[in-house]
Design goal:
309 residues; alpha/beta; Alkaline Phosphatase, subunit A
Length: 309
């Protein structure tokens, strides 16, 4: 069957069971949808009609007799679990070596080299939720002017700064410096600028974040689409993950709502090629914070508490 176009939408972090090697990444027992369905009476009728409940048993989710779509469950062939690894594999790149992660923060020599390069100290150097760490260290950052460096379960080097203390342009320059330095054994998948605004007790991240990824190592699907003179449309953080490679038009979004709206709008256009969307709120706002209530609301706002009987 031939298609003129494909719409590929990634619900970032919405998983349906652990990988075979989950224990090697401290993820044994991971099952985002399974745990959410056990905790809440989750009603997601559109995904249900597409065949979600046919993939495996999920509490309160029906396995429809005649789903509206093909369905299945896949596992990564690559060694790793982060954003870059997963998205690269979607484009045909399988990694044998995982990107490094830093659950206890970055080695002292990495931080000292970065501080020397930028001419100032840093705060943080730990694995943390981005929304939590700016509440914890934001006031000290405003007082000292020292950028906040942190990581997560992914292979990322994140730098947070208040836009009135370190301008967004300067923050991007700090990230470019880090990107240049982080090579060899410390070549993380992404360096991420995380600007924020507000006052102590009410700091808020802004949509002017920016990823500084590494170039995909070889020719991949997005290159081939563009070389075939087809469109490759990016919604959300897709373009930054692939360092703009193969992208013909990109649309940065502030969250899921804008991502869905933009995707629906582009689907009304007459184009041939790939429309590639990442809905990041599931992961960025709720997954990293283990926020079950927020996660459920983002999937479907009228989900009900599951029975405890």
């Amino acid at each position: 069957m031939a298609f003129d176009r494909v719409i590929l939408i990634v619900l970032d972090s919405v998983g349906i069971g652990e990988m075979p090697d989950a224990a090697a990444f401290d993820d044994a027992g991971s099952d985002t949808l399974g745990h959410l369905c056990a905790y809440r009476l989750l009603r997601i009728p559109n995904l249900e009609r597409l065949g979600l409940g046919c993939i495996r048993a999920l509490a309160h989710i029906q396995a429809v007799a005649d789903p509206n779509a093909a369905f299945g469950k896949m596992a990564l062939a690559s060694n790793g679990k982060d954003t870059t690894t997963g998205h690269w594999e979607l484009a045909g790149i399988v990694l044998e070596k995982a990107f490094p992660t830093y659950p206890d923060g970055f080695p002292r020599e990495v931080i000292e080299a970065f501080e020397t390069a930028i001419g100032r100290r840093t705060l943080g150097n730990c694995a943390a939720s981005g929304t939590e760490i700016i509440q914890r260290l934001g006031a000290e950052h405003v007082r000292t002017g020292f950028p906040i460096v942190y990581t997560s379960a992914d292979s990322v080097f994140q730098i947070a700064a208040h836009e009135e203390v370190i301008s967004v342009a300067e923050l991007y320059d700090l990230c470019r410096t880090a990107r240049t330095m982080l090579s060899g054994p410390h070549e993380v998948g992404r360096v991420i600028a995380r600007p924020f605004i507000g006052q102590a007790g009410n700091f808020q991240r802004t949509p002017r974040w920016q990823d500084f990824a590494i170039q995909p190592p070889r020719d991949m699907l997005l290159d081939q689409i563009k070389n075939a003179r087809l469109e490759c449309l990016s919604v959300g953080k897709i373009a930054s993950i692939y360092c703009e490679r193969g992208i013909t038009r990109s649309f940065k979004t502030a969250g899921n709502a804008e991502g869905i709206s933009r995707t629906l709008g582009l689907m009304q256009e007459d184009f041939r090629g790939l429309l590639f969307t990442n809905l990041v709120d599931f992961d960025m706002l709720y997954g990293h914070r283990n926020d079950v209530e927020g996660y459920v609301r983002r999937l479907w706002r009228r989900s009900m508490p599951a029975s405890r009987n």
